[in-house]
Amino acid sequence: MSDSCQAPQGFLEAISDAVGPDHCLSDPDLKASYELDWTRRFGGPALVVARPANTSEVAKVLAACNRFHVAVVPQGGNTGLVGGSVPRHGEAVLSVSRLSRVLSCDPEEGLIVAEAGTTLAAAQAAAAGVHAELGIDIAARDSATLGGMVATNAGGIHVIRHGPMRARLGGIEVVLADGTVASRLSGLVKDNVGYDLAQIMAGSEGTLGVVTKVVLHLVPVPPFRVTALIGLRGIEHSSADPAESVRSVSEVAVGLAARLRRRVDGIDALELVYADGMTLVREVMSLPAPPDPGADAWLLVEASGGRDPSDMLAEAIEDAPGVTEVAVGDDAGGRARLWAYRERHTEAIATLGVPHKLDLTLPMKAFAEFAGAVRSEVSAALRGRTDTRVIMFGHVGDGNLHVNMIGPEPEDYRADDAVFRMVIQRGGSISAEHGVGVAKLDFVSAARSAGDLTVMRRVKDALDPSGILNPGVLLPPVG
Ligand code: 2HG
Ligand code: ZN
């Protein structure tokens, strides 16, 4: 296996023959944007970047990598946050960015078929053209690609209503390590003929094959959609101790989220931001004051359906413990203005430095206690280092909290490990929606049973016997 930037003789010619010389990039300047991930924490030199235009070119690239034993990293929009889609040690990069066509969008069948490099935003626009939606949405929609979203089983803001990417999948086309094309694109909802190819690939992080086409289920555009941003203050503890005040307002948020789900039909999103993140986002993005600018946290709720959910929402929010002020958006512009406070967190945090991003799920009963305890555990792990900023936000409706830390060096894992241990102790997940990549490799064995890992390894060995596909990602080394 080649693991340096020295290509085996004849390999670059084979790639150039497969994709054409213009799309076989070996110039360092041309390769640069494929070599570093979005966070700037992960990356390394690529042996070559291959940019195939279609499935048969993908098959040729993979067959060449297999023949020459060259490791290959599949890459979509390079918006991954765990180092799973960038080279580490001189692997080849296979970018699907040129596979970007929407092939069909059929509201009668309720299906969209698109190539893997299609951005989420482009697929959403195609769906909107037939008065439909995808039922999945993430802040990185303009760059994230459908293939990458399948590979990471991306989640996002509508998971509580429509599930993560694997729940949206109606079919797939994938190229295996040896160039074999496996395709199941019928999109039939009932189709029980054996193993489910799409589900095997969802969440496999480029270790089993390269996704080339994706079939997704559509949902109709609801006639009514309302978003509310709700200011919250902690009520059960004094706010003298910052950890207790985070915990207290988190308890309020978890309680309100549960109440809204009980009382309001058609909840699409339940998102949470805290005061420190709100202050940062407002400063960096020059956003106006939110409702109750002095609140400890804000819950963003969105609901939609065949009837206007405004009254139901107002009744559920009224008199709810800890609620201070509310702003409502019921048209596209008004909703977008409220979403900006939540969605622009990632960009705002990136202006502070290279973040450590921990994407976690907690059981609901552990969410508030965990959020209150994170900062002291991080500080203990870093032995009192005081220049670390911890900013949390996330999808409180499904227990998914994003813990961002700025301060520790990129390769300093002490705080990451401490937080992962906290999550495992509380029965949570170390990867909610971003995947494992290289960032969480050390915790996979703690997060999965031995038998589970054996199945994963055997599937990997069967589909990629030479181990050329994204080695070092998702599966921890044996032993
Ligand atoms: C989001 O929810 C994304 O906006 C990114 O999952 C999370 O930046 C992050 O930590
Ligand atoms: Zn998220």
Task: Name a few traits of the molecule.
5-stranded antiparallel β-sheet, 17 helices, alpha+beta, 7-stranded antiparallel β-sheet, about 475 residues, globular, binds zinc ion, binds (2R)-2-hydroxypentanedioic acid, single chain
What does this structure look like?
The chain is 34% helix and 20% strand. It has helices spanning 11-19, 28-31, 55-68, 120-129, 146-151, 159-162, 165-168, 197-201, 242-263, 275-285, 310-317, 332-343, 345-350, 364-381, 414-425, 444-447, 450-463; strands at 24-25, 49-50, 72-75, 92-95, 102-106, 111-115, 132-133, 169-175, 181-184, 210-217, 219-220, 224-232, 267-274, 297-305, 323-329, 356-361, 389-395, 400-406. The protein has a seven-stranded antiparallel sheet, with helices on both faces. A five-stranded antiparallel sheet has the order 5-6-10-8-9. A hairpin with a 4-residue loop joins strand 5 and strand 6. The longest helix has 22 residues, at 242-263. It is globular and about 70 Å long. (2R)-2-hydroxypentanedioic acid binds at residues 139, 346, 357, 402, 404, 433.
